[in-house]
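Issue: ligand-bound run for zinc ion - logging full I/O for the record.

Environment: standard queue, default settings, no custom constraints.

Inputs:
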Amino acid sequence: MIFTDSHCHLDFDEFSGHLPELLFNCVTSGIHRIIVPSTAPDNWSKVIRLCRQHCSGENQAPRLLACLGIHPWFLSGLTQQHLEQLTTLSQQHSKDIVAIGETGIDKVIAEKEDNLAQQRSFFEYQLQLAKDCHLPVIVHHRRSHHEIIPLLKQNKSPYGGIIHAFSGSYQEAKTYIDLGFKLGIGGTISYDRAVKTINTVKRLPLSAMVLETDAPSMPLAGFQGQSNSPLKLVNVFNCLTQIRQEPAEVIAKEIESNINALFQLP
Ligand SMILES: [Zn+2]
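Outputs:
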């Protein structure tokens, strides 16, 4: 079986000391592609460079695929000018990027930094940019389905995207699926207490799911306090096979074809 990590911050410092070895271990674990979202203007060029070095999936490394975007955690000090830079860079690198993201709305940060209006406007801008670039969008959420869903409805796109690290009810999941989105299934399902999300994942069609780690964030149950790794994608997959009725091979194959369809990959 082969897998794609649809969300991993491989450019972060946590990985820089041992990246070649980590990438080699990914390949031997069957992880043949990793989608690398960017988070802020600071890391755009690093993400592009890293993914260019590994765009072929040769030299004992997975194929790395870049995204450009601005994460709702990193809006402080950013202006319209940064959004315009993002547009220019996305056009320049249209051959290098597979999505816009990550973007979205985080209600916890919005309350702490009092920046909900800015989060909304940066999110809407990036939804439009994704549409203009004919690309899917990677969406970050935290306590914000009620903020995100209306904006996705107002800015419908034929290119869809991923609701990254999905957690929520079946009804919320269904709403996203009807809007053309896939749900990023990650470490959340390794926690027994995530009853609502696990029950949702049990009922969803396989055609709506992709796998992710969000490494170095979101450690799985049993690994709290440690930095997460893309190698844990296999653990996420094993949790999913426990929840679902279908044979593991069927699940793996369907999820790979979801990735191919969404990112227009062969
Ligand atoms: Zn992320």
